Amino acid sequence: MRQLYITTAIDYVNNLPHLGTAYEKIGADAIARFRRMEGDKVHFQMGNDEHSAGVKKAAEKEGLPSKKYCDGMKEKFTSIWASLGISYDDFIQTSEKRHYTAVTTFIGKMKKEDLYKKRYEGWYCEPCEAFTLEKDLVDGNCATHKSKPRWLSEENYFFKLSAYQDKLLQHYKEHPRFILPEIRRNEVRNFVKAGLQDISISRAGLDWGIPFPGDSSHTVYVWFDALINYLTATGYGSKTVNKKIGRLSLWPAELHLVGKDITRFHCVIWPAMLMSAGLALPKTVFGHGFVFLKGEKMSKTLGNIVTPLDIIPRYGADALRYYLLRESSFGADGDFTWDNFTKRYNGDLANDIGNLLNRTLGMANKYLEGHLVPLKKTKPLPEDTVLKDKITGVLKIVREEVDWQKSGDINFHKALAAIWEVIGATDKYIDSSAPWRLVKEEKTEELKKTLYNVADSLRNIALLIAPFLPKTSREIWSQLGLEKKLKWEKQVFKNIGWGKTPATQVTAGKPIFPRIDISPSLPSVPTNKENKMENQIEFSEFQKLELRIAEVKQAAKVEKADKLLVLQIDIGGDERQIVAGIAQHYTPEELIGKKVVVVTNLKPAVIRGIESNGMLLAATDTATGKVIVLTPEKEAVAGSKVK
Ligand code: MSP
Hints:
The protein is of the alpha/beta class. The longest helix has 31 residues, at 338-368. It is flat and about 85 Å long.
């Protein structure tokens, strides 16, 4: 058994997680779960990075103290991580007291000659939370955020990073797995070779941050504080024992998983800080690739952010996990498009694994009343041996693909492809053994053996996918009827093997991945660009619409039409009847007295025998699919024109 301390970057809390930030956590979770199933003792650490200027602004906007705002964001973040099945062991907030203690202790341990004070002037980009050099600006703007940095002139505390150039290069040379994948190692090495400058590690006159030890007119620079979180979480600087860790010594970390944009902080500044404080360096910093949306960077300004909540309520967390992990190696960039997502979902999830489970349970129920038993040893048929070899051989491949020490990358996509080959082989096994024929030919023993073998294969598949698709794994486990005898949470890879499934009574569950009906229900999250390109109309066309505020006077359900409500509305003296398809989202009582927006010049229509003289406007929320009726934001009299 090995002890492994695995961390992700800690997230800024001015925005909620999107697919990019979620990608990192999903990858880290897959590794943590994988290693736990290997029998290792894993401590998986995550958290939020709270001392940024952005946080202070966001909190002020909401009229909240910064700490309260951060605590609220922690609830939101952790609930998203829970819905994605992220199994972290501890979640740190940098505004916690334990972190203040660790940061103060750490700075106290750094070599005195590495810290000094000097006046510094430069361009500071707030979204980066870093100084940028004049030469790196593009038209005076930060190259990443396209916004104008602020000119700062302050007396700051400095860390003598320049003194660590040779030591860092030496460390990279002696520890080729310190920075992975190789492309990141080369980038960082070239950067360090070009020469290092000392860095400012404090900010003057900011009240939101950790007071600089010995000088409370300064706060610790947010990145300097953030990096130390990895130590805080091990109990560093604390006199009390952390209940989650006990007396285990977690440091040095086995693996820091971070995005490729922040490798310099983790592979240059962080190791130099640790050297200065006389502490061991983490074994590996892995700079994973980025998730793009249709090849573009997700950004608020472009309006093209897709979040986990756009996907989970409709398709489940595992569909998202599968898509992101199956696209490319963790070190490379990946891309999200709804088209590809639908293809993967309907192909690999609905058709392959979903269908395999469904047909197996269907046949077991139909032919054997759901009862499957291991049979006494009989001579295996050639097709039995093919399937057995596939199952017993796949773990070795999966292990190699996710082992960054061996391959230098983390190839989730190849590991999943290998597991999907077992799914394909099991499907083929069913087709060639043809249980339906065995029934006809009354070959009962052979039928029992065949269906048992298929269920056994599914049990192995459930174990293999557990780190990647935990909810699906558990569902298969339960539909196979294994839950009572073998607790899913206790399963380890040692349990993989041919013929290890005990006698079981399977259940017929509902499909684990119902097919996506491509056209009507797929939420489209168009980019602003697409909005501009497609479906443009002339203003004169828009003017043809007559939109008005109406008051709902009466509302009632339409008999035998569970989606429809019939409303009597008043449009400023003009009383009308309209039919609206919102009965699954609103009760009649909720609507009576409400002011709504109505298209008043639509030709009358008869819907289910009821005349409708207008149309109510409502939005369908992309994230939840809920229908939300549009109402004026302030009081407006019925009949008011909307344009
Ligand atoms: N707070 C810093 C990290 C401090 S670690 C001591 C930070 N926060 S962040 O919220 O901007 O990003 C959190 C993580 O998400 C980072 O590792 C970042 O690289 C990653 N990602 C942000 N956008 C991403 C994509 N579009 N794709 C993949 N990962 C991305 O940086």
